[in-house]
Amino acid sequence: MTEETKKTKIGYYPGCAITKCSTSEEYGTSVLGVSRVIGPELVEIDDWNCCGASSAHATNHKLSTALSVRNISLAEKDGYDEVLAPCPMCSQRLIISQNDVHEDKKLREEVEDAIEMPISSNVKVSNYLEIIKNYSMDEIAEKRKKKPEGLKVASYYGCLLVRPPKILKFDDPENPTTMDEIVTAIGAEAVDWEFKTNCCGGGFTLSRPNVVVKLTHDILEGAADAGANAIAVACPMCHANLDMRQKNIEKEYGRRFNIPIVYISELIGLALGLKPKDLGMDKHFIDTDFVVDAFSNIEE
Amino acid sequence: MKIKITTKELKSDFAKEVKERSGIDVKKCYQCGKCTAGCPVAYEMDYMPNQIIRFVQLGLRREALTSRTIWLCASCITCSTRCPKEVKIAELMDVLREMALEEGVANPMEKNITTFHEAFLNSVKKHGRISEFWMLSEYKRKRPKTALQDIEIGPQLMLKGKLSLTPHDIKGKKSIKRIFEKFK
Amino acid sequence: MSKKIGVFVCHCGTNISATVDVEKVAEEAKKNNPGVSYTTTYKYMCSDPGQKLLRDKIKEEGLDGVVVAACSPKMHEHTFRNAAKKAGMNPYHVEISNLREQCSWVHPDKPTGTEKSIDLVRMMTEKTRKDKSLNPIKVPVTKRALVIGGGIAGIQAALDIADAGHEVIMVEREASIGGHMAQLSETFPTLDCSQCIMTPKMVELAQNENIKLYTWSEIESVDGYLGNFDVKIRKKARSVDLDLCTGCSSCWQVCPSKKIKSEFDMKLGNRTAIYIPFPQAIPSKPVIDREHCLLFKDARKKNIPPNDSKVCRKCLDVCPIAPVKAIDYSQEDEFITEKIGAIIVATGFKELDDTSMYGEYGGGKYQDVITGLQFERLASASGPTEGEIQRPSDGKLPEIIVFIQCVGSRDPAKGCSYCSKTCCMYTAKHTMLYKHKVHDGHAYVFYIDIRCAGKDYEEFWLRAVEEEGATYLRGRVSRIYKKGDKLVVLGADTLTGSVVEIEADMVVLASAMKAQDDAEKFAQKLSIQYNKDKFFSEIHPKLKPVESSSAGIFLAGTCQGPKDIPETVAQAGAAASKVLALLSADELEREPVVAKVDRLPAPIFSTCIGCFYCKRVCPYGAIAEEDIKARDGSVIKTVARVNEGLCQGCGLCAATCRSKSVELAGFNDEQVYAEINSVEFN
Ligand SMILES: Cc1cc2nc3c(=O)[nH]c(=O)nc-3n(C[C@H](O)[C@H](O)[C@H](O)COP(=O)(O)OP(=O)(O)OC[C@H]3O[C@@H](n4cnc5c(N)ncnc54)[C@H](O)[C@@H]3O)c2cc1C
Ligand code: SF4
Ligand code: SF4
Ligand code: SF4
Ligand code: SF4
Q1: What is the pLDDT averaged over residues B82-95?
Q2: C501 and C519 share a domain?
Q3: Burial of C247 (C-beta count, 10 Å sphere; 0-12/13-18/19+)
Q4: Which of A178-192, B152-166, C201-215, C561-575 has the lowest mean pLDDT?
């Protein structure tokens, strides 16, 4: 992208999970912190609402569509042509809903009536990896302050960033590499592994913890056996499941992984020299000191 | 439980109804089983994803709508992504769940899951956003058996400042209400 | 004198009469159309009695024009014209009104259908009044066949034609004939060794005096028409003189470039830069792979003629032929033109070897996930492992092997909807070959359906299960991933409603049979049609299965669609017999429906103004520029001329010509205007 076409102001749709005082606030904190250093400028969409997440789409398609699409229309009203939704649950719901109303005229009319706003077709909804890749790779290279030592990162994408591929049109659904590229760009080693897009059990954290425990076990095992000593994520649900369930996994499978699960934004922040605390590194269940320490040694 | 298929099922319009609601044409499925093969939750399901599609193909409405499978589907979309016939299986699960709720036949064994969805949406309806604390409380209240599960996680979250007791109401609460009213 | 025309309206059972009042059509034809002296209706005009009726009435009524109102002229124009000919009438006075495809089948309403039928019959009656007698065009036949592709299809067809006493030119683009069959280990359903049944045929071909073989050669262009093709062949520079070389093997033994992946071994083995593809190659003489040869690499780098390079030259030095060596680095591509009467296309298939679209199976990144042909090479005694089933990564004997069927076939999401037809059988074969070599190994097959419908085929695959102990699991595999040195295969068994997880040592993908990469371009070169999957199309799937859409060009083997060896050989024989029928006559008759550019007496010579728009629009390249010369040889005028042999009668030139100099016989302006003017517009 050339300098002129580079948009610098992007609508920010945090979604419920990563706002302050929520279970994944460190994701939001670090995304914003990083953007302040390397851009693009993120401006919160006024009065956004919850996209309904899986609970809405799993039980009521129209409701799910309307809740999601309302936010896109708000963004357009605020004058943005691109919106960042760092939570992939949100970005996926927003993009699918946008797609659905475009394919189904009747649905579109019903939804427009419900949200009392015209539906925008011009706003592009992006996930966090896309934003970094499209706007900030050069900046990372330029403003990188620290280089991690001995950090071997397995990039874990989960489901929502890459599927359904025909609609999301982001990276290769079986072997995505965008996050790996970012990991490499901050100087860490990107570990090639087999579970990049396996499901972690997503929204079953509370209702079906046994499912989550099995699936996260397989993922952690895959990463550990591939030699990773940290897992990077870009999804609050993936993070919660992988980070909070390691104890249960130990109980169930007798293997203690103790692998720190870090947001990709946190890793970028550390490389840029931001303070761990300002990135929310202290808010994890699994201690992240190892990762923080990896960055502390070398100043570039 | 054995299933008996008679012309009553075979002649039913279930597949057509599903298609009208969702645009998904189950006729396209040639039952290769690739969806099942890659489903991360298949091992917990009462019927395999390809069997759910088969139910719809053959008009076995009750079997499909009362299955636990439709609730156990994690919406990971692995199946739809890899289906050689491009059948939208994950999306089909959504429609079947919706129909099961409408008809009041959702499998009681997966009440945890349906209750979670309920509590989640109630919170959205009330505030426009999720209030994790109150959503959890409603869920635990309605599913008392889960009260002890993860008992240690809640306080830890609190300690880390990750569970707020004060819900955040958006300004456009009315607009959200309207959406919920329209699409009950 | 005006013509006496008879109109015969066919009921076509009830196909026409159900929605067209045929009696009324006949009645109206007589009432309103001048010249119509006889009308009748009949249940089936195409039946024997129907044709007899036509013949009898022509004679009895003294008819000199006939309109048959029946089905499409594509169906029976020929039938009725023949019948008329037997009754002594020039067949081109017979016209067809299409009351079925263009009327009764598309108009459910009887009054409408009847009205339209009356119009259609009137149009044809008017045209018939203007019909002139035409005589078939005779073209001479070159009694020589061209077979393109030297797989089993091409070999079989070439031998059949040559054995009947005709000359055959075979063009094969690889260094040896043999095609895929030469790569197979043992063949279903009898498990006989492929080489053992293939090699004698290859030798027979090489020794047959009627067959001229061009290997390492390709078709450059095909001009001309049925009976008279001009084919330009490119003999690619082989760097070895086939007449001098004795195939002594000295050169490929000394070649230092030894690590080139062998195409014949599906990249599982290596070859040298100067090589023969496999020991039984025909001709058994080498070729230099100029891309990898050190000398040619050096010459390219330094931009000098290869002969000037001093790098290597080992093969030349060791070549024992004297005084002139058989190796010639300066050889260049050579072009040869051959006159040909009929062509058989036998260019075969390509195995789907690039599985990058299967990201869920590793997309080609796992060494131990191989394709069906690779397995053939592993199992083959002449293969890179001398027939031992060793997995490529570490040479280990796989104790657990998984076969996955329908990879790249029956998978519209990956862009291929058809069934490759052979893989069910060859997978069953593979499990047996595996079990014969790894006695206590376990073979698992994931399948969707078993399609083994040939003679003895059902028994064959059941043998794999019942006697050889292969386990079949009904389900497609969703994912393969690596765990340590194992490959975890996630599949399903829909018969039990289960997910299946197998830790395998090796996985074999029964990958699809695809059209050749260059199939589309090749088809365009020959003006033959192909289907959406780029397999060449026969003109009629049931009744003309070996005829391509271009007259005189026939299809044999897998270039037309996936098939196994028995079917390939049968089709090759059929194509050969079609060619033989063509070559058995000295002259061929062609329909006289061709275009003609007028010729007039001097000083006009022709109304053609020489704009050659016709030449530009003619899809068959049938229009030539002709100089009209004065006695002293000076050119007076250059005008267009239609080559009757090439013209297919499409009429584009006639429609394009600005000076109305082109006329299409049987469809001239007078005839067409008569048709149009007869329609009553209201
Ligand atoms: C893994 C596998 C196992 C099989 N096992 C069996 C079995 O056990 N039994 C059985 O009956 N069948 C088997 N088959 C099927 C069998 O291989 C085919 O039926 C047979 O090889 C088809 O022969 P062909 O002559 O049509 O094509 P090919 O063998 O592909 O021959 C085509 C020839 O044309 C040449 N050519 C291509 N393009 C050009 C061009 N433009 N100009 C000049 N030459 C050209 C090629 O170089 C090649 O030599 C198997 C197939 C596969 C993939
Ligand atoms: S993967 Fe597709 S075609 Fe195969 S069983 Fe599932 S839905 Fe049917
Ligand atoms: S979307 Fe549901 S059915 Fe499909 S693979 Fe994922 S969990 Fe299984
Ligand atoms: S010149 Fe050398 S490298 Fe080239 S083919 Fe001859 S021996 Fe091989
Ligand atoms: S022959 Fe068998 S394995 Fe091959 S595509 Fe057809 S069904 Fe699949």
Answers
A1: 98
A2: no
A3: middle
A4: B152-166
Question: Could you report the per-residue pLDDT of A170-189, keeping only the tens digit for each?
Answer: 999 999 999 999 999 999 99
Of the partner residues A48, A59, A116, the one whose CB lies closest to the CB of residue B98: A59
Q: Is residue C672 in a domain?
A: no
For residues C457 and C435, give the distance between their C-alpha atoms in angstroms, rounded to a whole number: 19
How much of chain A exceeds pLDDT 90, in percent?
Answer: 89
Kindly tell me the burial class for residue C436, based on how many C-beta atoms sit within 10 Å of its own C-beta (0-12, 13-18, 19 or more).
middle
Contact status, residue B139 vs residue A206, Cβ threshold 8 Å: yes
The number of the ligand nearest the C-alpha atom of C420 reads 5
Kindly report the backbone phi and psi dihedral angles of residue C43, in degrees, each rounded to the nearest multiple of 5, phi listed first. Answer: -60, -55
What mean pLDDT, rounded, does chain C reach? 95
Supply the CATH number for residue C636's domain: 3.30.70.3270
Domain boundary among C90, C106, C136: C136
Domain A2-126: assigned CATH number: 1.20.1050.140
**Of C363, C482, C484, which is closest to A174 when you measure between CB atoms?**
C363
Q: Are C168 and C162 in contact (CB under 8 A)?
A: yes
Residues B148, B165, single domain; the answer is yes
- Shortest distance between the Cα of B86 and any Cα of chain C, in A, equals 6
Overall average pLDDT of the C287-295 stretch: 97
Q: Which residues of A touch C482 (CB under 8 A)?
A: 194
- CA dist list (Å): C79 to C45, C82, C94, C594, C667: 10, 5, 10, 20, 20
Domain boundary among C460, C481, C514: C514
Sign of CA dihedral C523, C643, C234, C159: positive
B98 lies in the same domain as B129? no
CATH of A144-298, one of 2.60.40.10, 3.40.50.11810, 3.40.50.2300, 3.40.190.150: 3.40.50.11810
Say which amino acid occupies A178.
T
Domain that holds residue B136: 109-182
* CB-CB under 8 Å, C363 with A175: yes
Residue A42 at interface with chain B, using a CB cutoff of 8 Å: no
Ligand 2 atom closest to Cα of residue B30: 3
User: Are residues C370 and C473 both part of a single domain?
Assistant: yes
Its sign, for the CA torsion A132, A133, A137, A138, is negative
Q: What is the pTM of this model?
A: 0.90
- What distance in Å separates the CA atoms of residue B162 and residue B165, rounded to the nearest whole number? 10
Confidence grade of residue A158 (pLDDT, cut at 50, 70, 90): very high
Model confidence at A4, in pLDDT bands (50, 70, 90)? very low
The pLDDT confidence band at residue A6, using thresholds 50, 70 and 90, is very low
Q: Is residue C658 part of a domain?
A: yes
Read off the tokens for C613: 């728009």
- B17–chain A nearest CA distance, Å: 15
Query: What is the extent of the structural domain holding C171?
Result: 144-231+336-343
Residue C170 maps to which CATH number? 3.50.50.60
Say whether B78 and C474 touch across the interface (CB within 8 A). Answer: no
Number of domains in chain B: 2
**d(Cα C580, Cα C50) in Å, to the nearest integer?**
34
Q: C404 pairs with which residues across the strands?
A: C446, C509
CB atoms near residue B45 (< 10 Å): 21
Residue B68 located in a structural domain = yes
> Exposed (0-12), middle (13-18) or buried (19+): which is C668, by Cβ within 10 Å?
middle
In this structure, are B91 and B158 located in the same domain?
no
Mean pLDDT of C129-156: 95
- The number of beta carbons lying within 10 Å of the beta carbon of residue A3 is 5
Same domain? For B73 and B97 the reply is yes
Closest CA to C497 of B80, B106, B45: B45
In this prediction, residue A2 carries a pLDDT of 42
